[in-house]
Amino acid sequence: FFSPGFQVAPETKAVMKWLRSIPFVLSASLHGGELVVTYPYDYSRHPMEEKMFSPTPDEKVFKMLAKAYADAHPVISDRSELRCGGNFVNRGGIINGAEWYSFTGGMADFNYLHTNCFEITVEVGCEKFPLEEELFTIWHENKGALLNYMEMVHRGIKGIVSDKFGNPIKNARISVRGIQHDVTTGN
């Protein structure tokens, strides 16, 4: 998952352990520097290839999740606006991460490959490091979109996997026909 010789920081190891210990299903990483929602994979299938579409087996689900956020964001969903030097209007405010730019070691890819958690990355504004007085506006631009995204937790498969006595089965593998990516039940 990480490049050879890559040292994982202690706080990154702690987050990885935390993600594996709690059965999260959705997460979002908030960044600055653009107005777009990206989804995995963020690392190109061909490491030397930049801007190469690299879908996961759950491409349709990730697009649905990214659109749920983008469509509820007042600026990302504004079809008349050119923003931040990049134009994602024609894409509906979303893009596959590796198609935008490929990088290794991202949390969205880690979550998808090593946990049950589906993560999107939200670029919340044109400024990489917004000024303190801009934060209130950024919060209000993203609040409804975040709530809309959180409601997506009710989409898809949910329930309890149990034995014939009704006891929950821990670490049962759930497979969906046609999607080469399984998830496992929690505790």
Automatic annotation (TrEMBL):
Domain Peptidase M14: 1-153
InterPro entries per record: CarboxyPept-like_regulatory (IPR008969), CARBOXYPEPT_ZN_2 (IPR057247), Peptidase_M14 (IPR000834), Peptidase_M14_domain (IPR050753)
One GO term of the biological process aspect: peptide metabolic process
UniProt KW Ribosomal protein keyword: no
Spans through the membrane: none
Required cofactor(s): Zn(2+)
Keyword entries, A-Z: Carboxypeptidase, Glycoprotein, Hydrolase, Metal-binding, Metalloprotease, Protease, Zinc
Keyword Zinc among record annotations: yes
Gene Ontology cellular component list: extracellular space
Active site residues according to the UniProt entry: E123 (proton donor/acceptor)
Record GO terms (molecular function): metallocarboxypeptidase activity; zinc ion binding
Family the UniProt entry places it in: Belongs to the peptidase M14 family.
Name listed for the protein in its UniProt record: CBPZ Carboxypeptidase
Organism: Anthoscopus minutus
Gene (name only): Cpz
